[in-house]
Amino acid sequence: MAISDFRQSARTRSAGLKRLIWLAVFVLAISSLAGEPWDKRPQQWNLAETYQILSDSPWSPAKTAVELTFEKRYIDPLTNRRVELPNANRATAVERAQFGRQPKSEVPVLWWSAKTVRLAQQRLRQLRDPAALREPLRADELKDFVLIVEGTEALRILSDSTENLRETVFLEVPGGLSLDVSDARFVEGVKAGEDFVEFHFLRQIEGRPTVSPDADRVVFHCKATAKTARPGRPDSISIRAEFEPRKMRAAGRPDL
Predict the structure, then answer these.
(1) Cα angle 201-204-208, degrees, rounded to a multiple of 5
(2) Gap between the Cα atoms of 157 and 193, Å rounded
(3) Considering the chain, what percentage of its residues have pLDDT values greater than 90?
(4) How far is CA 236 from each of CA 44, 136, 162, 230, rounded to the nearest angstrom?
(5) pLDDT tens digits along 95-106
(6) 72, 229 Cβ separation under 8 angstroms
(7) How far is the first Cα of the chain from the last one, in angstroms, to the nearest whole number?
(8) Could you report the per-residue pLDDT of 166-186, keeping only the tens digit for each?
(9) Whole-angstrom Cα distance, residue 39 to residue 27?
(10) d(C-alpha 137, C-alpha 122), whole Å
């Protein structure tokens, strides 16, 4: 190979390498501008992005601890109610699962009053059923903060709770304070997997916001034991779900 040909080949390789570097920089810049799915218009969400919002986003808890308890009890045949056995004869088995950022926890907890979450649920329906594409995506502002706990077992236990849920369900807010639940609604879905419990919390008390959109952490606590025992099924549930309101923003705006 002549020296001139070698130099020309080297210049060509150098130019090609520079083009690749600039292309990589361009792709990274575009990726950074794209941001998270919730920074896009809901109509642009694909199936993966919709699932991400509903199961792995600031509105679905990054840190959730769920404890389900099974107890051996004597069931009164007349009332079908549990009768506690003496302590010496009681046997309790506890199944505990710690869920981090996984595709979907067994007891999902969602910050339902956020428009992003409700729009994602509607978008998911559109992507599953093309006929639903004609329906506009819409989410109005809700009067209260609303969190939902999904699942058939959660609905069964919480709707049949021996405890007063107003005493065992609350939000732990900054400053060592707690915000008690103001209302609980039990919804049995038409299809399997659509059951959930809706917990309402006041947005304001005496004109002051109860949860700041700039708060670093808010923790949802929920505990209940079912009055009626079911063989082979859990009869007690305890949930601790941690949210970060300062990260709960869509298109740069707070969305609680």
Answers:
(1) 145
(2) 16
(3) 57
(4) 41, 40, 10, 11
(5) 333 333 333 346
(6) no
(7) 69
(8) 999 999 999 889 999 999 999
(9) 18
(10) 6
